[in-house]
Amino acid sequence: MHDMTEPAAIPFIDLGAQRRRLGAAVDQAVARVIDHGQYILGPEVRELESRLAAFCGAKHALSCASGTDALMLVLLAQGIRPGDAVFCPSFTFCATAEVVALVGATPLFVDVEAATFNMSPQGLERGIATAKRLGLKPALVIPVDLFGLPADYDAILPIAERHGLKVLSDAAQSFGASHRGRKVGTFGLATATSFFPAKPLGCYGDGGAVFTDDDQLIEVLRSLRVHGMGSDKYDNVRLGMTGRLDTIQAAVLLEKLKIFDDEIAARDRAAAAYNAALKDLAIVPRVPEGLTSVWAQYTLRLRPGRRDRLAADLRPQGIPTAIYYPKALHQQVAYRHFPVADGGLAVTERLVDEVISLPMHGYLDDATQARIIEAVRRALA
């Protein structure tokens, strides 16, 4: 006899479970800020910055209002301007290219590698040649660490060096991951990350950070974050923005940072269980030797028609899926007039039709994950 009740819905990212674990600690941290009343750049902001820098091994961390602002602050500090080409993967969230266009420079889209979803070094080389052909000045490369996996810095950094390009690492999804023994936050000129609530380390609103080892850059970033201030906020020495992280969000992040390593390990266990159970039925994500991922998303690749059927099969069983990203940036209305690397973006255009992401977070218990795996296996069999 069939049970006609709807199966309990599984959350795609279970912030509630984390909230129950942190219990009163976050409430108390927020209450302390409300009591001391220093809502803008209060003591928790400075403490968070020093703890974030210590966590990843960067010399400096600057907290800011979002991952997008983190990218924007570095572009402003570097004086990226019209006529400059900034190389971005097309298979990513729009913020990476958006900030480039907003400062008047040209985002030039390059392809990714199917195995990692990250920027292709060969694609970058093609992109640099394209920029020169178009009369643009190659200025900066923004590799994105997609879904929590660091980009191929061993290949990208030497290419950038050879062509005189600065590297801004977009680690919006990868803070906490490492690349051959070095934590994300220590590659290139600077690293930007996001603390959007759904990210591996997220606050209760928008937030972000920039990491750098460059003493001059951090001073400029601090000024830019408060309207380009000089000796005080009414002495404006450059054009800036208002890009600060709220003290309340810093207080939340300090509590979450205490359990972050533990959550990263739990995400890794969940990814390993998915991989073991699904590798015979789909292309499962692979982490190259010597790298770790924080699994911001767990993304399978399936034949295009099969992907949509899987989502439709899982939905009535209370199992959510998501597609990151249904359209690449160079296919979107706001970005399709920007140049793509000569030779096109064949891998990117294939991936947008193949990818589908399953629930992934640090609180995916064995029973829930077994239910997801069983339903996915049944649907794909």
Automatic annotation (TrEMBL):
Active-site residues (renumbered): K199 (proton acceptor)
Keyword Transferase recorded: yes
Keywords: Aminotransferase, Pyridoxal phosphate, Transferase
GO BP terms: polysaccharide biosynthetic process
InterPro entries per the UniProt record, alphabetical: DegT/StrS_aminotransferase, PyrdxlP-dep_Trfase, PyrdxlP-dep_Trfase_major, PyrdxlP-dep_Trfase_small
Pfam family, one: DegT_DnrJ_EryC1
Transferase as UniProt keyword: yes
Sequence positions bearing N6-(pyridoxal phosphate)lysine: K199
GO molecular function: pyridoxal phosphate binding; transaminase activity
Family to which the UniProt record says this protein belongs: Belongs to the DegT/DnrJ/EryC1 family.
Record's protein name: Aminotransferase DegT
Source organism per UniProt: Blastochloris tepida
